[in-house]
Specification:
By secondary structure, the chain is an alpha/beta fold. It has helices at 3-11, 48-60, 71-81, 97-105, 123-133, 145-152; strands spanning 40-44, 64-68, 85-89, 114-119, 137-140.
């Protein structure tokens, strides 16, 4: 290679600095999203996209999530997954969220599970019905991140 070509080749070399993220254990939770202890959250919704998206958010915040797409599957997961919180769609085909809530409450082994209804309707419209079925509260879908973080931190929904 002659001197001119050598100089051109050297001029084309460049470097880049790529920062490496710290391991997950060393990262801090974003402000306002940390939960005091991890929840085991069962998300029950026949809308697969909504259920999977909500599960991802639950896990990003530092909790464990499992998804069921119908009431029968949700009930089958209770003993295996042992959720501390169930986010339960009210209007599903087959077994409604109300029926699932009553079935959960009928099982003494699962008396301590917090049940939160997921609905497209306001809590004012369904308050009496959700309370009668055994729900601890209700949130309107889609659930926003601050509301989800508050639920996972133990705050009571409306």
């Amino acid at each position: 290679m002659d001197e001119h070509n050598q100089t051109m080749a050297e001029d084309r070399n460049f470097g880049a600095h790529v920062p490496v993220a710290p391991p997950a254990s060393a990262r801090e939770e974003p402000a306002g999203l940390a939960t005091p202890s991890a929840e085991r959250v069962l998300i029950v919704d026949d809308n697969r996209d909504a259920a999977e998206s909500l599960a991802m958010l639950v896990e990003i915040i530092g909790n464990e999530a499992q998804v069921a797409y119908d009431g029968a599957s949700a009930l089958a997961l209770l003993d295996e997954f042992r959720p501390t919180l169930i986010l339960l769609d009210l209007t599903m085909p087959g077994m409604s969220g109300f029926e699932v809530a009553r079935a959960v409450r009928a099982r003494a082994a699962h008396a301590g599970i917090r049940l939160v209804a997921l609905s497209g309707r306001s809590a004012d419209e369904t308050h009496d019905e959700t309370r009668a079925a055994g729900f601890d509260g209700q949130v309107v879908k889609p659930v926003d991140l601050p509301t989800l973080a508050a639920l996972l931190a133990g705050s009571a929904p409306t």
